[in-house]
Design a protein that fits this description.
Largest sheet: 9 strands, mixed
Number of strands: 9
Strand content: 15-25%
Structural class: alpha/beta
Radius of gyration: 20 Å
Number of helices: 13
Order of helices and strands: EHEHEHEEHEEHEHHEHHHHHH
Helix content: 40-55%
Shape: globular
Oligomer: single chain
Amino acid sequence: MLCSVIIPLYNKEHYIAAAIASVMAQSHQEFEIVVVDDGSRDGGAALVEAMPDPRIRLLRQANGGVSRARNAGIAAARGELVCFLDADDWYGKDFLKAMVSIYQKYPEDSFFSTSFLCMHDPSDGRLDEAADADFEPIANFYAYRAAHGVFYCTNSIAVPRRHLMAMPYCFPEGDQFGEDQDLWFRLAERLQLVFTPARLVAYRSDVAGSLCTVYNLRTLPQVFSRLEQRASRLPAADPSRHPALSIVADARIKVARYALQDGRRGEALGELRRALRGGMSMRWLVTFVMCTVGNASLLKRWEMWRELKRDN
């Protein structure tokens, strides 16, 4: 089975060769690699262009953002199964093998994901083997996501191409944060996610410019606004409604905490009021107390303590 691996490339000259090498080393060798250069200003695209393997294709476009690059890759893909890999990350050797195997078991109305390992460098840890991948369908995606947090990443997901082609749009262009989450949310509303906690892909956590390291939730990202709108239209008895709204509520609480740290107490309280659509949690209560009797300095110390506790 042909797998299409979509790699958006923007100024990742020092990482792209290793990312491609991790695909070339796969135990499942029936693949194509579609690298979409998004107007890079370094030599990354030239490195890809010089690679002799005919399974590697390079597309070039003017800089338009990662969503546009991934969408261009999807449009050019020829494989039955579409996978994604960021240019500074890498696959374990059995990732494609696991994706093909589980797709053959669940060929209808499903998409697939493994877990992932956050690392600074390939030498920091060992990824799991395909034999460790025990896949199970997730009955309620939003309930699982609300309980476990982000248990997948873009690198860890595979989607049958026909399902991507049936979407009104794939990655939303113009979003600055959460464009990948937006697609996974909408896919989960149409399809069943089949998941394994085995960590078969890696996410490099220390690359300069990564949105996950530089983006602060000082405004609610569109991915959560759109999710809130869709969830609010669901019947009250729908089992996905409350967990979806609780995911939005958690994002609104984060926005409220940043607002309080910036001295915007009124905006923080407004976000907390809107977050109540997802129910009252302990995090909501703590943030409300900080807004009413605490101050920005106290909240910053609280957040620093939480970070230290999590790291230890």
